[in-house]
Amino acid sequence: MKLNAIKKAMILLTGIVIVTSCSEEFLTDIDSNGLATEDAYYSSQSEAYAGLTSVYDVLSWDTFVGRLAGLNSASDDFYAGGGNSTDVNEIQVWQTYTLNPTTGPAAEYWKKGFSGVFRANVLLRKLPGVPMDPALIARYSAETKFLRAFYYFDLVRFFKNIPLIIEPIATADYYNVPQAAPEAVYAQIETDLSEAISALPASVPAATEGGRATQAAAKALLAKVYLFEGKYAESAQLFAEVNGNPGSVSPYGNSLLPNFADLWETNNKFNAESIFEIVHSGSGNYGDWNNLAGSEGFLLNQMVGPRAYVAISGSAPDYISGYSFNTVTEDLYNAYSNADARKNATIANLKQMKIDGIADYTPGYNDTGYFLEKFAGRVHNRHSGAGATELNWQQDTYEIRLADTYLMEAEAIVHSGGSQARAQALLDAVRLRAGLASIPATDDNIFNERRLELAGEGQRWFDLVRTNRAAAKLGSRGFVSGKNEILPIPIGELSNTVLQQNPNY
Asked: Collapsing DSSP states into helix, strand and coil, what is residue 161?
């Protein structure tokens, strides 16, 4: 009998101690059977910290079926691309909405989400007994609850009908965990984030703790959860605490970067606009083609680069030769005005470069001539470690940044009947940075602004689904209302369990 992903995660986390990196190196004592025992671990602050690191570690797990690659492919802004119609087939079938319980990204996203949840559950059970400063226990617990909420938020948005597990469970119960009502999952997410906020630091030193959860991150995530639930007044109020005065430095020290393009400089980690970001590194030295899981890098940098790229003139960008995934649709390219500073910082126009004789490339599948500039790998950003270059790109990704929270607050205000002047100021601040004039802060205008501001960052598909615009925008690709708003439960999770498949799959 094949073990499903939930059972694998539970065995890892209840029978042996969790690991601290994708290298899967155990950090604990070994028992007589060669397993790192949970009972022998969590006896010191350093071991608790290692456990916390392992909960964070799941955030940076990346594969060719990565979260951004899939979400972009499923949206109206990108195609899957690649070499042919079956290249990384898991995202190809999401683009065409021919995915099913056996084919698609669901198994990868389920595994990642529940791995994070179960690691968090074990650490939360163990922390009260670790001999360390109670204030530090409170902080570690708050960070772990934040992370569990983060993982569950992705899981409930991707699958809707999922098990809600907040304690490690006995082996005998592995196959008897039912799905919970989505409302119960959202309630737990709210509880975790509400409890985490007060014990989290207002800020962290970027040089030593960049990437760790803060009060601003927890408040922003909770406000976003409220937005997805349609609790607009609560969302707007909490976002206001995060955002402060539009266009100024926030109460938590965040501000919009003056130059939009600076957001995508690989070395500009933990900048003033970043509220919560996923950390990637090229220095792990583990990731190679025989150990893909050992990479701490960001694979999309390699995936979205133009195929067989050649710089012809000295003015050509130093793109690496990539795999031409997530090619940009003509519709997204045309949605930007030429005056929009975000256009060239978001989209690489290889079509024009080829016409002008500046650079050349080989068209791949779904070629449009437009590529995702935000994440295109650059020669000057190659890592210097021992791992495979293609697998160890080090650009971080933003899960929450200030322009995003501005626009979400503006949306929540419009829906809740709040201050129209404040909604206008929030929208204006984002557009001013892009070099654009003010437009009315209507729901449609804010929605369209999110598209232009956040293209390629994994927000568009969720925005389409939660605002009931997906069928209109994605119907031509095969999207079916009442089905494709969520992913199927992976077939491996249904065998010998009480889980039920999602409707119409």
From this structure: coil
CATH of 1-66+105-200+481-505, one of 1.10.300.10, 3.40.630.30, 1.10.10.10, 1.25.40.890: 1.25.40.890
Asked if 428 and 414 touch (Cβ cutoff 8 Å), the reply is: no
Count CA within 13 A, CB hemisphere, residue 156.
26
Spell out the residues 6+ positions from residue 84 whose beta carbon is closer than 8 angstroms to its own: 365
* 43 Cβ contact list (under 8 Å, min separation 6): 130, 131
Residues forming beta bridges with residue 150, ordered by sequence position: none
Q: State which amino acid sits at residue 69.
A: A
With vertex at residue 191, the alpha carbon angle to CA 190 and CA 192, rounded to the nearest 5 degrees, is 95
Closest CA to 324 of 110, 72, 79: 79
Topology (CATH level 3) of domain 216-277+398-467: 1.25.40
SS3 content of the chain, % helix, strand, coil (to 5): 50, 5, 45
**Tokens read off for 218:** 């927890």
Residue 151 parent element (H or E): helix 134-159
Strand partners, 278: 397
- Cβ neighbours, 10 Å, residue 310: 12
Query: For the chain, what is the mean pLDDT?
Result: 91
**Are 1-66+105-200+481-505 and 216-277+398-467 equal in CATH topology?**
yes
First to last CA, the chain: 23
Mean pLDDT over 488-492 rounds to 97
| pTM to 2 decimal places | 0.93
Q: Tell me the CB-side half-sphere exposure of residue 246, using CA atoms within 13 A.
A: 22
